[in-house]
Amino acid sequence: MTAHINHVSGERPLQPALKLESVGRFFGKLHAVSDVSLTIQAGERRAILGPNGAGKTTLFNTILGDFPPTSGRILLFGDDITQVPPHQRIRRGIGRTYQTSLLFDGLTVLDNLFMAVRGVLPGRMSFLRPRRNDPAMIRAREMADRMRISHLLDITASQISYGQRRQVEIGMALASNPKLLMLDEPAAGLSPVERPELNKLLADLPASLTLILIEHDMDVALRNSDIVTIMKDGFVVAQDVPDQITNNPVVREIYLGSAH
Question: Where does the ABC transporter domain start and stop, copy by copy (predicted)?
């Protein structure tokens, strides 16, 4: 499987979607992320795997500005965003989901999607109740159609299944029309019946959208990536295409133990 390319010119854009240059994040003496350098091209699907404590989520939060890097640089489509606040990174084209569900349980699915759309628009603090033909409400319904959850719009978030919550969260992350979508363990907590639907949703994402996902589920990760990066103890220890990564001896030791 090869990385996506620019469908207009047939060539890669001049600037990568995301470039990390020797990025580190320290918490006191704990080096949660150490000297990570990655280049992710526009339209690429990248999976980041590794055991618990490998630094995957800390790396995500560093890219998004929740934990600014202690060292190194982060470039988004060629622009240095190392010191840019998190809300500005979202406006520059990053969308994300979190490892734990962050829906407003007391609101309907439609209202959750609407809040996500409205949150990146001018006048987002307005208390006026939106009309049905409000552009943000129309986009919220479009997101529901894309996520195949239109039948859930009037149901409160507390009443839907865990898999459906994940669908809503991905729809909310797409609300701002991101150029780079970052998903933190989207398959976590899903039943075997729900996982094929997630794979279908990820496969249907626009080819121009750059996708980075953290996953524990090897099957989901390999199905939805062009390149797989393996982390351990805060470092990148392996990187390859999905068909080859499982043959890497370091990866086999991490996932299967030294006996294999």
Answer: 18-258
Task: Look at residue 123 and tell me whether its pLDDT is greater than 80.
Answer: no
Same domain for 77 and 187, yes or no, is: yes
Amino acid residing at 180: L
Asked if 177 contacts 117 with a C-beta cutoff of 8 angstroms, the reply is no
What CATH code is carried by the domain that includes residue 43? 3.40.50.300
Cβ density class 152-178: b for 16+ within 10 Å, e for less: bbeebbeebeebbbbbbbbbbbbbbeb
Contacting residues for 23 by C-beta, under 8 A, at least 6 apart: 33, 35, 36, 37, 59, 62, 69, 71, 72, 73, 74
pLDDT score of 246: 87
- Write down which residue in 126, 144, 174 finishes a domain: 174
Q: Which two tokens mark 85?
A: 């606040």
Q: Tell me what pLDDT residue 127 has.
A: 46
Closest listed residue to residue 115, CA positions, set 91, 89, 88, 143:
143
Tokens (6 digits) for 193: 């019946």
pTM of the model: 0.85
